[in-house]
Amino acid sequence: MNASMDLLLEAGSQREREHAIGALTPVKVRSETCSGCAVRHLSLCGRLDDEALEAFHRIGTRKTVARGETIAWAGEQSLTCGNLLSGMLKLSASMADGREQVVGLLYASDFVGRPYSSHHEFTVTALSDAEICYFPRAAFERLLETHPYVERELLRRTLATLDDARSQMLMLARQSASERVADFLLRTADRVGGCSAMPGGPVTFDLPLSRGSMADVLGLTIETVSRQMTRLKATGVIALPGARTVTLVRRNELRSQAGVM
Fold first, then answer.
1. pLDDT-derived band of residue 10, with 50, 70 and 90 as boundaries?
2. How far apart are CA 75 and CA 78, in angstroms?
3. 32-86 pLDDT per residue, tens
4. Do 140 and 221 belong together in one domain?
5. pLDDT score recorded for residue 35
6. Shared domain check, 115 and 179
């Protein structure tokens, strides 16, 4: 029985079957596709030798997801995992009264899902159009057992994610609104990249989420986020040439306002 059939048979509820079928929307990963992947050297697959790459691409499928689409629900059976190739995802938790709290963000090259976990801990939703290279979780775990160095790299990435979560806790507990917004812009620019006319000059990038999503991530209101962005623009620290385009004009000043040493 192949990995695709394993994935479908593991799905319990109707929604889980639909999710499993969706995860297999067939754009089969090919070895030449892997070699040309824009985030390969930044992702978990960057640690793979040719033999391992061949083994992983045999079980991989690519899927595009639209902005706003939920790809996993908290408490749902965990059937797949994979690499985020492009776009941005959010991890969120729902409170008893229906409120949502964003607990993490995933950028291109980040790993999506939790191997060795039977259910999703958080809901995963696309903040922008995105593309994911999926692996059936059971098949992925079997490959980890035969490629322990990949398992170690996954552990390293997991610990880095834990460090990010601790930084997020510090930000929510101690930083002011202005520090949160400045810190978020710096982190986002580092993760999504950007263009600059000269080394060390202003960096321009597209912000992959709305002001409302920023507010959710930072524990602020949308009005507060908008005021802080307007203040940074008015003082010449940043420029806003487009609806979601941001230019870090005076990066050192932004670092100072974020409290970054």
1. very low
2. 8
3. 567 667 777 778 887 778 888 888 888 999 999 999 999 999 999 999 999 999 9
4. no
5. 66
6. no
CB-facing half-sphere around the CA of 144: CA atoms within 13 A: 18
Domain residues for the domain of 207 are 175-258
Find the mean pLDDT for residues 136-142: 93
Strand-pairing partners, residue 115, are none
The reply to whether 223 and 165 lie within a common domain is no
| Domain end marker among 136, 169, 202 | 169
Quick one: 211 and 89 in the same domain? no
How wide is the angle at C-alpha 29 spanned by C-alphas 28 and 33, nearest 5°? 135
pLDDT greater than 80 at residue 124: yes
Note whether 38 and 75 are same-domain residues: yes
Q: How many CB atoms lie within 10 A of CB 55?
A: 17
**Would the CA dihedral through 46, 47, 50, 55 be positive or negative?**
negative
Continuous H helices in 104-250: 137-146, 148-174, 177-192, 211-218, 222-234
pLDDT score for 7: 41
Terminal Cα distance for the chain, rounded: 55
CB-based burial label for 74 (10 Å; 0-12, 13-18, 19+):
middle
